[in-house]
């Protein structure tokens, strides 16, 4: 697992779990079959600029920085304007082609947008495979993504 994939998974874990310690990240990643050390997680936390915020049952938990959560739509728009090559649709599926190296970050931003039409997405180096919940929702999502470029 490379750094971008690991950090994408860490963001997902933050959304799904109340993570209080670095060891919790290590345990959850190991449970999912990704062998990582506490030192690796510590470097990722620093690189991702994660912050600790009050937890619902006392204590503190890890969270994404507030400014990153609020500006996802702007970041996605800038990234798409910079790296967009093409966007095609077939049924409920979308295929987004980007410049080399851009797809992992754009894929993460698409996921962070929490589009209601989105069932799931996965990105490699220069392309993103997007699955919508229906054909109509794929068309709606395609329009939203294209509007971010214009």
**Extended strand count:** 6
- Summed up, the helix count is 7
Helix-strand makeup class? alpha+beta
Give the C-level CATH assignment of the largest domain: Alpha Beta
Helix content: 40-55%
Question: Uncertain runs with pLDDT below 50, 5 residues or more?
Answer: none
First and last CA, distance: 34 Å
CATH topology call of the largest domain = Gyrase A, domain 2
Order of helices and strands: HHHEEHHEEHEEH
What is the typical, i.e. mean, pLDDT? 91
Name of the CATH architecture of the largest domain: 2-Layer Sandwich
How many individual domains?
Answer: 2
Keywords: Amino-acid biosynthesis, Arginine biosynthesis, Cytoplasm, DNA-binding, Repressor, Transcription, Transcription regulation
GO molecular function: arginine binding; DNA binding; DNA-binding transcription factor activity
Protein name: Arginine repressor
Pathway: Amino-acid biosynthesis; L-arginine biosynthesis [regulation]
């Amino acid at each position: 697992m490379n750094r971008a994939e690991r950090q994408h998974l860490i963001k997902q874990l933050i959304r799904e779990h109340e993570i209080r310690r670095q060891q919790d990240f290590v345990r959850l990643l190991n449970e999912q079959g990704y062998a990582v050390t506490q030192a690796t997680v510590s470097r990722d936390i620093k690189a991702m600029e994660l912050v600790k915020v009050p937890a619902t049952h006392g204590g503190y938990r890890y969270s994404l920085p507030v400014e990153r959560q609020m500006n996802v739509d702007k970041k996605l728009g800038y990234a798409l304007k910079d790296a967009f090559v093409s966007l095609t649709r077939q049924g409920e599926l979308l295929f987004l082609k980007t410049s080399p190296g851009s797809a992992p970050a754009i894929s993460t931003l698409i996921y962070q947008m929490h589009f209601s039409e989105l069932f799931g997405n996965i990105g490699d180096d220069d392309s993103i495979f997007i699955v919508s919940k229906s054909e109509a929702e794929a068309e709606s999502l395609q329009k939203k993504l294209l509007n971010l470029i214009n």
